[in-house]
Amino acid sequence: MPVETANFNGTSSLTWTSTARNVLGARGIDALSTETSGGTVSTYPLYDTHGNVKAYVKKEASNTWSSLGWKQYNVWGGVRSSSGGAGTSSAYVGNLGHVSDLETGLIYMRARYYAPWAGRFISEDSKREGVNWFRYGEGNPVRFADYTGENALGAGLGAFFLFLIMWAPNAEGSSTLRNGLKFIEAFISGLATGYLAGTQVMHWTQEAANSLVGNFIHSKGGTMKGFPQTARAILNYGAAAGFYLGYTLFLAFAMYELDEWVMGVTE
Predict the structure, then answer these.
(1) CA–CA distance, 147 with 161 (Å, rounded to integer)
(2) Could you tell me where the beta strands, DSSP code E, fall in 116-241?
(3) How far apart are CA 249 and CA 150, in angstroms?
(4) In contact, 79 and 91? CB cutoff 8 Å
């Protein structure tokens, strides 16, 4: 969804007719306005906690206010009930700028279209990642939303990434600023992924260390309760150190592979 779109009529001589603007904020799309020769009409979306547009508050050029487009959704984005007119084309996860087709019911998510009544995309993932190339939001639409049609992300973080994706290419200033914003976007994505992976690996390490200690103690004919505290601590630290060393080597290898991939893309 562009930040600003100007519309013109004519062939040899163009005449301006209107300008549509999408105002970005912390939640994603904070306002939509249409400017014509008769004035400016603005609509302000009201979101639920998932980022779905529940309704709109509309301000006419005559400075009168009204509400429209009240909707309730199921977890997959299907409209359960509606009242007060159709509103606009932004509905399910509308804070990400996704456009809903009022005729077909499909939702355009940039890379492909999503069918909310089926809970899946109508075309396969171009990256062909995972085992189900049509799955939406990792099969968990309550927790995840797809902000490009190819990447599932926690619903609360999607709007922030939308801000970076849409604003960075249009930011005024040098290419250094634009590249810096792209770097921040990639850094935050990597930070979130690394944190989640690290906590999961820590959990696995603790379970594996306890299992190894238990097996060792039982192989010696003892029990966890009767085994000396110091010896148990040594075994726990030894097992944990081994697993963390293995994970560190994995990260080093992964960074090397990532660097090779980046160099290959940029050459």
Answers:
(1) 8
(2) 120-121, 144-146, 152-154
(3) 30
(4) yes
Which is higher by pLDDT, 39 or 232? Answer: 39
Mean predicted confidence (pLDDT) in 32-48:
91
Q: pLDDT value at position 127?
A: 81
Of 56, 23, 42, 68, the residue nearest 159 (C-alpha): 23
How many Å apart are CA 38 and CA 36, to the nearest integer? 5
Map tokens 């914003």 to a residue. Answer: 181
Angle at 170 between CA 166 and CA 174, to 5 degrees: 130
CA distances from 88 to 85, 109, 197, 198, 233 (A): 9, 16, 39, 42, 62
What mean pLDDT value characterizes the chain?
75
Measured in degrees and rounded to the nearest 5, phi and psi for residue 47 equal -100, 155
- Provide the CB-side half-sphere exposure for 111 (13 A, CA): 17
DSSP string, 42-78: EEEEEE-TTS-EEEEEEE-TTS-EEEE-EEEE-TTS-
pTM for the model stands at 0.55
Q: Which residue has the tokens 């007060």?
A: 84
Q: Rounded to the nearest 5°, which phi and psi values hold at 99?
A: -105, 125
pLDDT greater than 50 at residue 172: no
Tokens of 224: 């966890």
Q: What are phi and psi of 37, to 5 degrees?
A: -65, -20
What is d(CA 85, CA 98) in angstroms, rounded to the nearest whole number? 19
Task: Please give the single-letter amino acid code of residue 13.
Answer: S
